């Protein structure tokens, strides 16, 4: 791996691996952060944003759109190098490789070949790390050593049209992954400790969005987009609890992760607007009632972030927008697109909203429903960025198409 360092000396102590992995509130342990909601904990915005960030180091790690993870002093990456999918653990302070696990994986073909590396963000929990490869290979490793614990491929050679994209999650000792493809797939729960299958719901295959957890009246359920619906499935046994038809038309996809706030679920998809529903338990069964629907704003390749009952995101035409999540009314839209298809990441960093489209311009916004208010626009990569950045303190880890870079916000 080729490295560019700003500082050449790092204490030996930061290179040592501890026997256990401790998780802090500022860690980024899975897709969209610790709670899968795009919220950054403990970030202090500078009084005045700089015109550029300070580079600490850069590593060439391989292709891929999977977002990095940060757990303690360890940075985890999932990429492709030549004919292999590679799981890497780096020292977060220096970029030094601590361990790697790699395996030969089928190449991405067809239209998806423009993105040859993994797209699914791994998850780290309870000392384990789970990855989902582009061809549907699910792996569980020891997060301290990289040793393989188990590996599954229940639908060999079966993937969505553009290969896998959903990011697995771990809840109550179960790894939840939606595997296979259209017409031949299943949402499956594996025991993380053993790899044994606990249950599967096989009525619909996956599309490209990822699951989240919703709890109603003590019942934990997995809320996820499928190839043609938004569904709620019981965590304990895989029972279908409710379903909302949401079939993508034409060249649209179910690629956005649902947003959960209390018993409200917000979901969106290109060509079908943005919707909010209430999930309630009545007479032992779950019901779905619509709260609002906004036909003006649709999302394709990003997931909006909810902050103070306001939704910030990129439309499928690549324009930033703000929506009142109580009424569903459009508050404002940006004047020009940053990405023609809406490939972007949106994060709630407390005092600011961070937006990173694939054009690699970090856009800093003031959270405001009244009007679009841009505080900074900072170029942070020469290559396109499709992965969500990781922000911890004043550090920002950015994975572009080939490299991982540690930037400091000073």
Outline the structure in words.
The two termini are 27 Å apart. This protein has no helices and 33 strands. The chain has strands at 3-5, 54-60, 69-71, 74-81, 84-91, 97-104, 123-125, 128-132, 138-142, 148-152, 169-171, 174-181, 184-191, 197-201, 212-216, 219-225, 229-234, 240-245, 259-261, 264-268, 274-282, 285-294, 305-307, 310-314, 320-324, 330-333, 344-348, 353-357, 361-365, 374-379, 390-392, 395-399, 403-408. The strands form eight sheets. A five-stranded antiparallel beta sheet has the order 1-2-33-32-31, with no helix packed on it. A four-stranded antiparallel beta sheet has the order 3-4-5-6, with no helix packed on it. The chain has a four-stranded antiparallel beta sheet with strand order 7-8-9-10, with no helix packed on it. The radius of gyration is 20 Å and the shape is globular. A hairpin with a 5-residue loop joins β13 and β14 (197-201). Helices cover 0% and strands 44% of the residues. With 410 residues, it is mainly β.
């Amino acid at each position: 791996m080729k490295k560019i360092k700003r500082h050449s000396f790092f204490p030996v102590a930061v290179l040592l691996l501890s026997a256990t992995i401790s998780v802090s509130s500022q860690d980024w342990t899975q897709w969209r952060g610790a709670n899968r909601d795009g919220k950054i904990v403990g970030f202090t915005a500078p009084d005045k944003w700089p015109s550029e960030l300070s580079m600490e180091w850069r590593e060439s790690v391989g292709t891929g759109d999977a977002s990095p993870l940060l757990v303690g002093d360890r940075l985890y990456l999932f990429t492709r190098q030549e004919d292999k999918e590679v799981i890497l653990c780096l020292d977060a302070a220096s970029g030094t490789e601590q361990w790697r696990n790699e395996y030969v994986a089928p190449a991405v073909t067809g239209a998806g070949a423009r993105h040859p590396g993994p797209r699914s963000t791994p998850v780290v929990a309870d000392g384990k790390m789970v990855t989902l490869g582009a061809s549907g290979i699910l792996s569980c490793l020891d997060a301290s050593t990289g040793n393989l614990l188990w590996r599954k491929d229940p639908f060999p050679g079966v993937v969505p049209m553009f290969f896998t994209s959903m990011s697995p999650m771990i809840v109550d000792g179960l790894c939840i992954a939606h595997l296979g493809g259209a017409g031949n797939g299943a949402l499956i729960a594996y025991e993380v400790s053993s790899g044994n299958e606990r249950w599967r719901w096989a009525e619909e295959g996956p599309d490209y969005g990822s699951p989240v957890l919703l709890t109603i009246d003590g019942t934990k359920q997995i809320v996820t987009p499928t190839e043609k619906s938004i569904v709620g499935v019981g965590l304990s046994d895989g029972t279908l609890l409710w379903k909302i038809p949401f079939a993508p038309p034409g060249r649209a996809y179910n690629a956005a992760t649902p947003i959960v706030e209390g018993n409200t679920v917000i979901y969106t998809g290109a060509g079908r607007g943005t919707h909010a529903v209430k999930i309630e338990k009545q007479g032992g069964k779950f019901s779905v009632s619509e709260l609002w629907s906004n036909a003006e704003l649709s999302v394709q390749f990003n997931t909006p972030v909810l902050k103070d009952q306001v939704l910030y995101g990129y439309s499928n035409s690549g324009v930033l927008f703000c929506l009142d999540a109580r009424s569903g009314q459009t508050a404002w839209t940006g004047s020009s697109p940053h990405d023609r298809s809406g490939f972007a990441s949106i994060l709630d960093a407390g005092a600011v909203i961070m937006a990173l489209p694939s054009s690699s311009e970090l856009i800093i916004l003031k959270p405001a429903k009244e009007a679009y208010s841009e505080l900074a626009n900072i170029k942070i990569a020469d290559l396109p960025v499709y992965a969500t950045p990781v922000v911890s303190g004043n550090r920002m880890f950015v994975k572009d198409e080939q490299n991982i870079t540690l930037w400091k916000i000073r």
